[in-house]
Amino acid sequence: MGIVGGEGRLIGGRYRLEVRLGRGGMGTVWRAHDELLSRRVAVKELHFGADEPEARVQRARAMREARTVARIRHPGVIVVHDVVEQDGRPWIVMELVEGPSLAGRLRSGGPVAPREAARIGVALLGALRAAHTRGVLHRDLKPANVLMERGTGRVVLTDFGVAQVSGVTTLTDAGGFVGSPEYTAPERMAGGGTGPEGDLWSLGVLLCAALSGASPFRRDSLGAVLRAVVHEEIQLPEAARPLRAVVDGLLERDPRRRLGLAETERMLRGYLRSGRAPERGAGEPGRGRGVGRAAEAVAGSGGP
Known about the structure:
By secondary structure, this protein is of the alpha+beta class. The protein contains 9 helices and 10 strands.
């Protein structure tokens, strides 16, 4: 768990903790002062369980996250400066993005305008292209992991803690599911393999959340979320209408029919230029409202 009263503590002989910025299931992020270079940074403290095997997995995940992000160079991807050891655990030192997450912005200000949603989408597509080119799948794209830099409007993708890297063994929590079910592609929910298309599904859910304030798969229980993602007809919010063709194409359950990155970017950029609702080109995928392959796989295994 996070440090109680950690403000003022020196980490790695260099980074002075100032204010806790946020806390999630896997870690706590602090604003800190780099006393060597006299700059502010963000420091991620990992939450380790008491069980030693679990702690080893968490240590390995922290190092993998740092290495994963360090290999991606893009203004839309968080920059990792350093990894230091303190109290037997690694702490990840990153650039400090001054501003709220998209989740915080939605909580405080409500849904964003369609043009702003499209701008955020284009920025995230650039970050995903840079990651996918390096063989990295984010696998946890959601509003809480998107930072909005105050004053510049820069959109920054962060938290690669559950990313999948080509050629690297995947780390899980005692064999359990890792990620955010509301934003996870149905093929992954069904236990199948996932590729870049999985991140694009998550982008479609994120655009819905940005436009309406909530994911279309929000339910009262995990089981209900799983059924909604894999089985139920997808009911898009009215607020998604200006970008409906994009969201429709991204929320195609069959990844073979899902909009690709280039097509999605073309449609969003076209909307930003013209203000006209995007339309699919003749060769671009449609969307089936039926159950699809992912649901069939789950049904064959006895359900979620």
